[in-house]
Amino acid sequence: KRLAACIQIMGPMLSTYWWKNHVETAEEWLCIIKSKLKLYEELEKSIRQIHPYEVPEILAIPVIVGSKDYLGWLGGVVKEM
């Protein structure tokens, strides 16, 4: 689908969190997905289709500044809307 230019997967790591009034602990992997804001909705939909959690952590974090070359590469490899 070319929704991301790059995905970094880190883990496994241990996460502890509140879920339905109980503290839960689970082995998880952190995925950093590099894409464009205009692809967010489609990317979120794709993640939800394959993610096992009822409420997965899906966040969009703004880029304040980045190298012109890198941002140009990112924009060139993800799909156009």
List the helices and strands and how they pair.
Blueprint: E1 6-19, E2 22-34, H1 40-50, H2 68-77
Antiparallel strand pairs: 1-2
Could you walk me through the main structural features you see in this protein, from its secondary elements to its overall organization?
By secondary structure, the chain is α+β, with helices and mostly antiparallel strands. It contains two helices and two strands. A hairpin with a 2-residue loop joins strand 1 (6-19) and strand 2. The relative contact order is 0.24.
Overview features:
alpha+beta; 81 residues; 33% strand
Biggest β-sheet strands, sense, barrel = 2 strands, antiparallel
**Class of secondary structure makeup:** alpha+beta
CATH topology group? Alpha-Beta Plaits
**CATH class division:** Alpha Beta
Number of domains: 1
User: What's the tally of helices?
Assistant: 2
**Residue runs with pLDDT of under 50 for 5 or more positions:** none
Beta strands, count: 2
Quaternary organization: single chain
Give the rounded overall mean pLDDT. Answer: 96
Tell me the series of helices and strands, N- to C-terminal: EEHH
Rg over CA atoms, rounded to whole Å, is 15 Å
User: Separation of termini?
Assistant: 12 Å
- Spatial sequence of strands, sheet with the most strands: 1-2
Helix content: 25-40%
Broad shape: elongated
CATH architecture: 2-Layer Sandwich
**Binned strand content:** 25-35%
